Amino acid sequence: MQGDRLALQALNKNLGLLLVSINQYFLHARILRNWGFAELGEVLYKHSIRDMKSADALIERILLLEGLPNLQEYGKILVGENITEILQCDQQAEQAKHIALADAIAVCENQLDFVSRDLLEQQKAINEEYLDWLGTQLDLIEEIGLANYAQTAARAG
């Protein structure tokens, strides 16, 4: 089934952002585990895996639409040097994905590709859930301070 060129471009843009976030979240998860924050790292690791599954679904859809999944265009991986920066970097990546998902949903809607739109809407729901979690963690750090947050996170692991 031949896919619309604009829809395929939008799907590939979101695929590229997912490929960056997979690596970024995986690296952050391992950094946190190395620092002794295993439980916090596990949350990021699971989100990396969730993004990998989302990327897989996009690849499948692009191939079904007779497009070529672009696995070569990587954006910049943002690496935090402390817990706050890690969460902020991940929040920044999720915000970029949120914008791209909203744009792609609109493109697919306009091009009458409702299956791709539905797939992207599912991914947007995951994105919004993680954005909310990241915002909550950053709010906690602001309210109780990084030292107290880190102490709580270290105890939890």
TrEMBL record:
Gene3D superfamilies: 1.20.1260.10. Its cofactor is heme b. One of its GO terms (cellular component) is cytosol. It comes from the Bacteria. The keyword Iron applies. The keyword Iron applies. One of its GO terms (biological process) is intracellular iron ion homeostasis. Coiled coil: none annotated. It holds the Pfam family Ferritin. Keywords: Heme, Iron, Iron storage, Metal-binding. Heme b binds at residue 52. One of its GO terms (molecular function) is heme binding. Fe cation binds at residue 94. Belongs to the bacterioferritin family. NCBIfam families: bfr. This is Bacterioferritin. The lineage of its organism: Bacteria, Pseudomonadati, Pseudomonadota, Betaproteobacteria, Neisseriales.
